[in-house]
Each structure stands twice: as structure tokens, then as C-alpha cells.
Amino acid sequence: MNTSAQGQPRPISRPIPRLRWRPTREADLPQCMALLPAWLGLDDRKPALQALWAELLDDPSITTTVMEDLALPAPQRLLGWGCSVVLPTAHAKALGLQDDPPQPPGPMVAGLYQRWMAGEPRPDLKALAEANGQGQLHLLNLHYTQRPANLADPLALAVLAVANDAFRFAVGGWQLQAMHIQGCAADVPMFTAAGFPVCPYAQSGPWERLPDELRPTHFGITRRAALAMLPGTSVRQAFDHYPPRFRFSPSQRRLLWLALFDDSDEALMARLEVSVHALKKLWRGIYERIEDVAPGFFGDDADRADDDGKRGPEKRRQVLAYVRQRPEELRPWA
Question: So which domain of life are we looking at (predicted)?
């Protein structure tokens, strides 16, 4: 036993966590599969589900983030995984998510995964842009899992705090009609603290007799109910919305999303599969679009010479600072 000179047991030391969140990458998927919640009942489908997620990472309807601890070895860094899909009204109605308050007919995420693995299409960019512009979108948080899960553990609370930051930004910017999340009965303290009410299923089922860690539970809230709350919870903040000012192109929006996480130009080129010339052209298009819409955005000296290359990085810094405050610029809009 590790004891002090006075014979008292010393607390067990562990590295100070260096937690952050970022978008999920394909290299993360094996660790993500280890975080797949048991209540989904898809443990025997993990290889197929991992192949599906390799496709979902670039799907415009999908948002997925990981919480990682940089103090740990790379194969052990992922401590949390969350993912969501945005659905136009017709898709949400087919899942039974149109009631107020929402009363889905039963657990749906496992079935949704099964249909996607069978090839069922997801909403395309045009449908998402139209539904976003009309405020006719539902956001379904497919699941969130973290380890450690015991909320009496300070590290679990620290990971959860990072996850709430990720949630507020990663799902923000959509003009949502309602938001939903599926979890298990053991998740109730975590998700209700974020602002989600528990929604009873419209009919009982065999899942109600399962243990907490396997019993699916639905949480949901409408825009009307969320905006009646004072700001403070993650859910309430995610409903804040303003129409985008700049209407960036899909490729420009993807560049901005990835650049928010401080990737180098080399990493951005690899993720976007573009040359250095094409990357510079994308940035130039972003700056020109902003200056067309808001001529004073970059200050009075925006039109001066490049100043030995210093002006470009300064413009990038200003753009990314703005987008961090206004995530609607990252969303399609029609």
C-alpha cells in the first residue's frame, strides 16, 4: 500500500486529465464501438455498424463528437461518444415524434440503425436546407455514452461537462421544432440535468421489465417548451437560432467546421481531399463572401496588401471566432 511517512494511506494518483471534444473521425470508430450502449441490443452487429458509421461521418444530417483525454495513450483516449441526426418533419412523423409532448411508439434507434444498414436513405442536403429554413426540423440524439459512468466519480463529472459543451455547439444552429434523445433508465439524472424531460412511451412494452442499464428511455422537448425556460441548460441553449448571414457553400461550411478544431492546413487538406491551392481558394471564397455581405467585418484595413502573409491568418481568426458564436453559419439554409 502507498502510505505517507505518518503511516496514512496516500490517495491514489492518476494523471491530470486533459479533456477536449472534437468531431468523430474514422480512426475513432473501434473505440466508439466499445462505447456502444448495451440497451441498443446491437452488440452482435458491431462490425456492420462500424462500416455504417464510416459512411455517416460525412453525412450532412449527422453530427457526432467524441470526448477524449489527451493525457491517456491514444488507444484509450476516448471517454465519451455522442451522435445525432436531424430529421425533416416527414421523417420525424414516421418515427412518431410529432406529438407535443413527444410520445414515440417505442424504442426506435436500434430500428433506425437496422434500416440504415439495409440501405434506407437519410435526408439529403436540399431537404435539410428547406426544413431548416422553415423551422421544420427534429433533432434525434441517437445516444450518448461515457466512461467512467458513475457520476460520483469526479472524472465522470469532468467528462460530462465537456460533453455538454460539445452538445451545445455541435447541435446548435439548426432551427429546430423539437429535440429528442434516447438513452436508458440509468441516464435519467444525466439527461434531465441537461434540460430534457422524460417522455413516456405511447404504449408499454417488454423493455419496461428490463434492468435500468438495458431499459430504453425517451427524452424530448419542443421548441415552445424550451424557449419558455430561462437560459442555462444545454437543451435551452441549443434552441437559440438566428438566420445565417453569409450562406456559405457546403464545401466552405465543411472547411469552417473542421478548422474550428485547430487543424493544420496539411490536416485540413487531407480531410477535405484538396490541394493547397484549392484550400487557399476556399478560404479566399469565404473572405470574399463575408466582405460582400458585411463590408466592415474585417475592419478598415481589410483591403490593404497582404502584409507579408499576415492578413490571411488574422482574417481566419476573426471568421472562426464569429462562427464559434454563430453555429447557424455551419448549417444548410433555404
Answer: Bacteria
Instruction: Look at the alpha carbons of 293, 297, 298, 303 in this order and tell me if their dihedral is positive or negative.
Output: positive
Tell me phi and psi for residue 106, to 5 degrees: 165, -175
pLDDT of residue 169: 92
Q: Which of 217, 238, 259 is the last residue of a domain?
A: 238
Q: Are 71 and 170 in the same domain?
A: yes
Place of cell 450532412: 60
Q: For position 14, what pLDDT does the model report?
A: 66
Neighbours of 121 (CB within 10 A): 8
User: Quick check: helix, strand or coil at residue 65?
Assistant: strand
Backbone angles phi, psi at 292, to 5 degrees: -65, -40
> Position 315: which residue type?
K
Q: Using one digit for the tens of pLDDT, what is the confidence trace for 80-111?
A: 999 999 999 989 988 888 766 667 777 889 99
Task: Provide the CA 77 distance to its chain's centre, in angstroms.
Answer: 18
pTM: 0.88
**182, 287: one domain:** no
244 is a domain residue:
no
Q: What is the DSSP letter of 307?
A: T
Domain with 317, as residue range(s), is 250-330
pLDDT means per 10 residues, the chain with 334 residues, are 55 77 96 95 95 95 97 94 95 81 78 94 95 95 94 95 94 94 91 90 72 86 92 91 95 95 88 94 97 91 51 90 95 94
Q: Which pLDDT value is given to residue 305? A: 46
Q: What is the CATH number of the domain that holds 41?
A: 3.40.630.30
Pairwise CA distance, residues 143 & 296, whole Å? 42
Cβ proximity of 197 and 191 under 8 Å: no
Cell of 333: 439554409
Please indicate, yes or no, if residue 278 is contained in any of the structural domains.
yes
Q: Contact, 272 vs 251, CB < 8 A?
A: yes
